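Try this one yourself first.
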């Protein structure tokens, strides 16, 4: 369903390029009540940030905004405010139940002169204009589908259903795909018609285009074109576009506490270590109460909230994630805010496991993850309370953070 042009301006000159901006996603993993594209990033929505790059293309383009039907009026207002004189090139369309249906709705309203189509995700709202221009140029020059991609830096393993590793994948052949993805209009329209006839849903437009026999090429992507999916991604975007924070003038301290119940069905991960034969801890991630308490202490000291606000409490990408993931990301955030980590001390309150024999090992792992000294101690509660009754474990951490550039105690 076409909802109407976003502006009442006179119809602009015909454009041979169209950009379909997909902004119909719910964004539930962000934990926000509004659809993802309408979540604020500082004082503007993700959609407005995305449109900055679109309207910086070196030539006029028809811009089709595919949004939830109940966001039509809001979208028109945002488009008028962002587009300025280019507002007459914008059309707002109601999205479908899937991304593929949403793109199909955008294709259905393209002007007759459009020859080249870019399909872009509003969630990749910081994509540099140069990336859109690069994809457009290569699509025109090659006549193929074009996708921007980044080299894969992590080691990739192939596993079976039981979780056992079966092979190491050659990452030199892999790229992490971004948007916009560019296509000749006729070829993309034909590919969408074929997918609809076959009743097949594809992971992205390039896969759909290739399945119909189209050739797809890769051009260099850009790290700034990352997709905002989780609260962490949103925080990262805020660091990139927000004002440079003033460096702290003095050392600051913080306290963090985390409590987890024992769960016999889980392995025990604590202080960054696996404890074979011990009962594990419940939690969405690996339940490492020591790592979580340290993160909360550091965030508290820097005035940056807490671990739940930063990472969310149910992000599927963090299901089963180990403590070092949270520690490294927290340390990275502190560095962007002008803090260096002085040291962290953490106390474990529990009857088990016996921390003493592995204290040095735990301190080395935690210090390595933070790039700063961490000391670990443990005690029981003489049978008192939740830990003393053997129902779970408590970790209490204190952290010292310093202005960047201040001397850091030796590890």
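Now uncover the answer:
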């Amino acid at each position: 369903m076409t909802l109407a042009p976003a502006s009442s301006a006179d119809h602009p000159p015909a454009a041979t390029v169209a950009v379909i901006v997909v902004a119909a996603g719910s964004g539930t993993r962000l934990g926000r009540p509004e659809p993802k594209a309408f979540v604020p990033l500082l004082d503007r929505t993700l959609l407005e940030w995305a449109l900055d790059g679109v309207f910086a293309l070196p030539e006029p383009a028809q811009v089709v905004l595919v949004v939830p039907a109940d966001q039509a009026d809001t979208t028109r207002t945002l488009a008028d405010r962002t587009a300025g004189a280019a507002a007459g090139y914008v059309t707002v369309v109601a999205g479908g139940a899937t991304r593929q249906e949403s793109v199909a709705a955008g294709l259905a309203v393209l002007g007759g002169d459009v020859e080249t189509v870019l399909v872009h995700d509003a969630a990749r709202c910081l994509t540099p204009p140069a990336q859109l221009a690069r994809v457009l140029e290569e699509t025109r020059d090659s006549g193929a589908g074009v996708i921007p991609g980044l080299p894969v830096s992590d080691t990739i393993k192939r596993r079976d259903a039981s979780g056992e590793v079966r092979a190491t994948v050659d990452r030199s052949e892999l790229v992490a795909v971004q948007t916009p993805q560019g296509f000749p209009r006729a070829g993309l329209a034909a590919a969408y018609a074929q997918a609809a006839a076959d009743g097949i849903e594809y992971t992205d437009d390039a896969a759909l285009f290739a399945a119909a026999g189209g050739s797809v090429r890769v051009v260099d992507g850009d790290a700034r074109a990352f997709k905002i999916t989780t609260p962490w991604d949103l925080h990262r975007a805020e660091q990139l576009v927000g004002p440079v924070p003033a460096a702290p003038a003095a050392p600051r301290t913080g306290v963090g506490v985390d409590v987890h119940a024992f769960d016999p069905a889980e392995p025990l991960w604590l202080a960054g270590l696996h404890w074979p034969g011990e009962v594990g801890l419940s939690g969405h991630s690996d339940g490492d109460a020591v790592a979580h308490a340290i993160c909360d202490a550091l965030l508290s000291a820097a005035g940056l909230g807490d671990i739940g606000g930063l990472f969310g409490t149910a992000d599927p990408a963090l299901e089963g994630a180990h403590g070092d993931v949270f520690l490294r990301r927290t340390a990275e955030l502190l560095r962007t805010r002008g803090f260096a980590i002085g040291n962290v001390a953490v106390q474990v309150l529990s009857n088990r496991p016996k921390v003493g024999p592995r204290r040095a090992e735990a301190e080395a792992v935690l210090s390595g993850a933070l790039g700063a000294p961490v000391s670990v101690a443990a005690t029981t509660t003489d049978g008192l309370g939740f830990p003393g009754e053997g129902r779970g474990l408590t970790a209490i951490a204190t952290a010292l953070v310093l202005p960047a550039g201040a001397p850091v105690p030796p590890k």
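Discussion: The CA atoms of residues 107 and 189 lie 7 Å apart. Residues 2-230 form a domain with the Spore Coat Polysaccharide Biosynthesis Protein SpsA; Chain A fold (CATH 3.90.550.10).
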